[in-house]
Amino acid sequence: MNRLSWYQRLAGSYDLNSGDDSPDRYRILRRNIVVLMLLVTIIPLVIMAVINQHEYQKSIQNETVTPLATLASKTRHSFELFLEERQAIVKSISSLYSFESLSDPKTLNRIFSVLTNQYLGLIDLGLIDAKGIQLSYTGPYDFLGKDYSQQSWFREVLVKGVYISDVFMGYRQFPHVAIAVLRRTEDDRSWVLRATIDTSKFDDLISSMGLTPESDAFLINRKGTLQTTSRFYGKVLDTFPLSFPQGNYGTVVVETTDSQGREILVAYAPFIHSDYILVLAKLRSTVLRSWYALQSRMLFIFIFSVVTIVLIIIKLTDNVVKRVKEADERREIAFREVQHTHKLSSIGRLAAGVAHEINNPMAIINEKAGLMQDLVEYDAQFRNKDKFIALITSILKSVERCKSITHRLLGFARHMEVQLEILDLNDLVQETLGFLENEALFRNIDLQLQLANDLPRISSNRGQLQQVFLNILSNAFAAVEDGGKITLRSWEEDADTVAVSVQDNGCGMSAETLKHVFEPFFTTKKQHGTGLGLSITYGIVKKIGGDVRVTSKEGEGTTFTAYLRKKAKFGSGE
């Protein structure tokens, strides 16, 4: 395929003969070339930028996000060990001592004294019966006889067996946590042992994390209430202003903007056996400062590269399209000359048939004229006047036939301007077929006409359509062997289009031949073919706003179908 054909295919048009020099044709070509070159050049650049960004983000994650999640997970584990240790102590006391022993204030005081010496943060210890009444208590407050039966924590410990409360103030007016354990005996007796723990140990665990001034760590419950003091978001029992993931999950690190407009990285580490969530927050600007600097440089380089590439591509494309347009203009001028020359050569091929058609009516003229002369000479009274009139009528019909044939011949020979007229497409097809009737009769070719009776008339140019059908029919005659079959059909395709098809049962075409069948100078007739017939046909149909399609299979035959507008649009290039 030559370079010009490639450009035309790139422009979205296979029309080599339409003579369409409209700006849209070259605009589409310019657009397609620009798009193609941009894809070829920018896609690798984008891929490289994406890969670099992805790899650097992975590095940033390994250096910032992963350590943040790891620190939150380790600190959460320390909190859980602290709570589990206190819970285990309360469970051990409830298991080692009987209800009667724990009901004795002296025994309970002795146990409490031992625990406070070994475990920091224990505030008080109390025994509560199955009805929710505190029977025994040791600590700084007077809670003896207090009724907890209506408290939600008491009902929960009766169901779950263990309860760890959120941080609350209560009567003590300072933050503390309650741990309650249910004990059941073999005789179906039950009671609850409840201990209160100071949350100052929580602050110690957070301090051990070694946070920078741009960081913050604190506990919240599942409702978003602060359980410890936060450097960024307030004191104990204040509401945490950000949304956070719900449910039991592993440590999650998210990027967000807080209520004060700060971009932060937040790690959420939920506790497994309690309703606490450890929150670790860091200002994003301090964590990703180096990433921002690199990203800005990469973005500048990328934009500069893209702009440079686009400008170069547009400049090169304009030059290419300009040369293609100039080549098209020269080709169109030359092609019109070839088209006219081919018209003249077609007349030579038809000369024998035309001569035969003219000889027949001329013979009739001679015969009837001789008879008329005999009648006049031998019958002075003109007794055969009626017959004489009939003969004259026959002569006139023959003369009219000669006139029709001569007119068709001149229609092909003259190089006339395009003129539109209302045509009956069926009549035009049959009229064109008349040029080839003798060849069909001589070769015993079966011509079948399946023309629609209600086919609407169209507005087009008679001479150009005759040339289209003659070229298609000539190819069909060349494709079939003697005794072959050619079928012509016509129908109304839609409201704006009619169609005519020429189907033969000849040798058919290969897929490779079909690709080039409408290209100029492409021919399979090596000895006498010019390769211009179908190319000219395609160009004429395109020029009047129609289309030509071909289907073929080797050994089975070929079908050419011409789709014609009811009102031709010359030069549309559609």
TrEMBL record:
Q: How does it sit in the membrane?
A: Multi-pass membrane protein
Per its record, how is this protein called by name? histidine kinase
> What is catalyzed by this enzyme?
ATP + protein L-histidine = ADP + protein N-phospho-L-histidine
Provide the E.C. number(s) assigned to this enzyme.
Answer: 2.7.13.3
The membrane spanning regions, by residue number, are 33-51, 298-316
Q: What cellular component GO annotations does this protein have? A: plasma membrane
Q: Where does this protein come from, organism-wise?
A: Candidatus Desulfatibia vada
Enumerate the spans annotated as Histidine kinase domain.
353-568
Q: Which GO terms describe its molecular function?
A: ATP binding; phosphorelay sensor kinase activity
Q: Where is this protein localized, as stated in its record?
A: Cell membrane
What Pfam families does the database record attribute to this sequence? Answer: dCache_1, HATPase_c, HisKA
Keywords associated with the record? ATP-binding, Cell membrane, Kinase, Membrane, Nucleotide-binding, Phosphoprotein, Transferase, Transmembrane, Transmembrane helix, Two-component regulatory system
Task: Identify the enzyme class.
Answer: transferase
Protein origin, superkingdom: Bacteria
The main place the protein resides is: membrane
